[in-house]
Amino acid sequence: MNSRAPIHRSLAEGRWQTFSLAFQLANVGSEVGRALKAKQEGRTDRMTAPLDRALELLDLTIADPKHRHRLKELCRLREVLCDFFLGDNDYGSNPDVIDRYFLEFAVAARNERT
């Protein structure tokens, strides 16, 4: 996490930790989806804000003590997202694979509510 003021202030103050992993990653995925759409449209100016929000939420997920046993996957996810959106895409990611990864969490989060 960086030193600037959080975008999601109430979540950063601890509320985020009250949610399940599925809910957390579904919300990260929602922001990633917005960033993917902007990237696919060539609108990098519209990609930055949702990507910043997604990375902040992912950082809050990484910092959540109940996910300590998942740190490797969560940190690799952050690395892959940064590589895809900001780097050289060394991992060879594509929008469909990224979207599918997060879709599983959206479905699981929805099933938690029912």
What's this, in brief?
With 114 residues, the chain is mainly alpha-helical. The protein has helices at residues 9-12, 21-40, 44-63, 71-86, 95-113.
Relative strand content: under 5%
Distance, first to last CA: 33 Å
Question: Helix proportion of residues, in percent?
Answer: 55-70%
Topology pattern, helix = H, strand = E: HHHHH
Low-confidence stretches: none
| Class computed from helices, strands and strand pairing | mainly alpha
Q: Biggest sheet, in brief?
A: none
Radius of gyration: 14 Å
How many structural domains? 1
**Separate helix tally:** 5
In total, how many beta strands? 0
Specify the overall morphology: globular
Mean pLDDT: 92
Structure notes:
The chain is mostly helical and 114 residues long. The chain has one domain (28-113). Helices cover 69% and strands 0% of the residues. It contains five helices and no strands. Helix 2 (21-40) runs antiparallel to helix 5 and helix 3 (44-63) runs antiparallel to helix 4 (71-86). The radius of gyration is 14 Å and the shape is globular. The termini are far apart. The mean pLDDT is 92.
